[in-house]
Amino acid sequence: LEMPDKEIDTYYTLKESLQKKYAPESLDRDEDEAAEAEEPWTRKVPVEERQSLKKALMLRLVAVIGKLDQVQKDKPGNWKLWQTKLVSERYWGSFCDAEKAVSQEVDYCVAEAQEIEPGWKGMIFQEAVHWYKMQKQQQMDMKTAKNTAI
Fold this sequence. Notes:
Oligomer: single chain
Helix content: over 70%
Number of strands: 0
């Protein structure tokens, strides 16, 4: 299972450039100091650029939800295979590690959402799931249209 490195890198590149441009002092803070700050560094970023950061985070989370969906679909079958010793402990362990990595990435995205816009952390996951489902539906519609055109 490969993580969506492109989306993750795009988000962090944009975040770092905005921090350097609008709140360079926030780059020197550790997580505890950032949490104690009276106002998040993102408040210094103009609305339009903050929107682009939100979009980058949403694209990152939507890509991760695709991986989460894959893991959740594969888990019952892999568990049965592991229980009957048709797959190795090593394989099952790597599957569990992948599930943990995906779950942690979701948690990171939710935490980042709170930093970008206070209160967003309670809604971002549901929004991302909605986007993911819309993407899947569009892909199915395109596939259906392509098959009917043939």
